[in-house]
Amino acid sequence: MESKDRKGRRKFIAKLGLGTTALGLGTINTFAFSPKKKETNLKSQPVNVGFITDVHHGFCKDGLQRLQVFIDHASRRKLDFIIQGGDFCHPTPEGNECIDLWNSYPGEKYHVLGNHDMDKGTKQQAMDFFGMKHNYYSFDKGDFHFVVMDGNYILEDGEYKDYGNANFYIDQPNRSLVNPEQIEWLREDLAKTDKQCIIISHQAFDEIWDGWSSPSRFAVRKVIDDANNRTDFQKVIACFCGHHHVDDHSFINNVHYFQMNSASYFYVGEGYGSDDSRAMYEDSLFAFLTLDPRGTINIEGRESKFVRPTPAEKNHPDAPRLSASISDRTEIFSEKR
Question: Which ranges carry the Calcineurin-like phosphoesterase domain (predicted)?
Fold first, then answer.
C-alpha cells in the first residue's frame, strides 16, 4: 500500500543561531549565536523531520499497516526526529502493537496528544502509554525551537478540564481548548528562545472551512503575534496540525499554518464512506519536512486517491474540498525588518 514519494523545493529567507539546546517545559540556558548574524547561516544545517498524524489505530482496521509504511520510509532516511500529530492509538492492551511499532524506530521520536487518544482512557493514561513526561513541552533541534501544544481541554462550569474517557463530545465552543496556564507558558517559552520557532498541535490554530478550528486559536495567535512583534526577526515561522484530515495551508500575519492530512481517511459520515463512515485513502499518507535556516521550509508529501466509492461518487457535499494526499509545498519566509 505505497505510492511514490513526491518531492518539492522552495526557499524562505531566515537568519538563525547555531546550537542545539534540548529543554523540558520551557527552559533555555544558553545561545551560541544571535539569529541575526549572517555568518551563522554558513554553518547551519537543515533539520529533517518525519511527520505522520491521525493514524487512528483501533478505529481504522489497517492503521498498523499504514504506520508500518511510514516507519519503513523514515528508517531509510537520515532524519533528526519523527513526530506523530495525535489520534494515534488508545492506551489499551490492543494499542500495544501500535506503540511497539512506533518505538521500533531507532531515532528520536515525539508525540502530540489528539482527542481520540483519550477515547478509552484519561489524558494521564495516554501520556504514560506514549511515554510522555508532559502534555505540552518544547525542545531545540539545530537552529529551531519546537513547541508541542495540547488543545485537549473542555470548559465545564467555568473550569478547564482534561479530555478523558470521551468526555469531549460536547458543543464546539467548549472543547478543543488550550487552558490559560498553557497560554501563559507559551508566552514565556517563546520569550526565552532566540531561535526561530515551529508550533505543533493536534487542533488547528488557523481557520478551516468546516468551522472546527480550536476556539483558543485567537489567544494562541495573539501570543504568536506578540512574540514576533517584540523581536527584529520572525520568531514564530510556522504552525503544523493534524485533526481535521485535510491538506491545507494558510498565511496569517507572516506565519504559515499547515494542516496535515490523516494517514488513513476522511470522516464523511454515514452513507458516504467507502468503509462505513470513512472515506479511506488507498495509501498511507505522511510527509518529510526539511527546515533549512538558510532559507527553506519544504514539505515532501505523498499522493494517493480515495478508495471507491469515493466521496464524489457518493455525492458528498464537500467532495470538491477533500483530498487523499499531502501536497508538496515550499514557502518563502523573509526576515522581519
Answer: 48-246
